[in-house]
Amino acid sequence: MALNVALLRASFEVVATANPRFVHRFYEVLFERYPQTRPMFPASGMARQEEMLTGALIAVLDHLEDAPWLTETLGALGAKHVGYGVTREMYDWVGASLLATLAEVAGSAWTPELNAAWTEAYGAIVSLMLARAAT
Length: 135
Ligand code: HEM
Fold this sequence. Notes:
By secondary structure, the chain is mostly helical.
């Protein structure tokens, strides 16, 4: 992935510092915008889900320059998501909600350049997740 690794990592730091629970906020935004996704997740125990997504995001950011790791890990994660009932369209919902959350939490630090870098990175992540998910 020819992504802007430094920019992605630095902006993730900005977001995580501004709101360490930004993933919690992400799920609020997702469920507000796409309430049809709510029943897919545990009714209680979202804290564990939040931890897993945070961990996944950190791991991906740590491995942005490790293509074999990304292909293997995200391919396996995408295959598991088929079992969760996740469709191609839902990735767009999650992407829109994630980008909106990052922009909201970063506030004035959010720029068009950051938006472009995260849109590109999310698109690359989704491509790898869908590679082994015949949806
Ligand atoms: C960048 C994209 C995504 C990432 C990094 C991600 C990450 C994760 C992780 C790490 C888990 C924990 C379990 C596991 O390892 O399989 C998980 C579970 C799950 N994800 Fe995702 N996910 C993504 C996209 C989506 C999308 C688009 C949906 C659809 C709304 C979704 C719905 C779910 C559901 C329903 C579970 C299982 C919840 C449960 O039953 O505990 N995910 N995801």
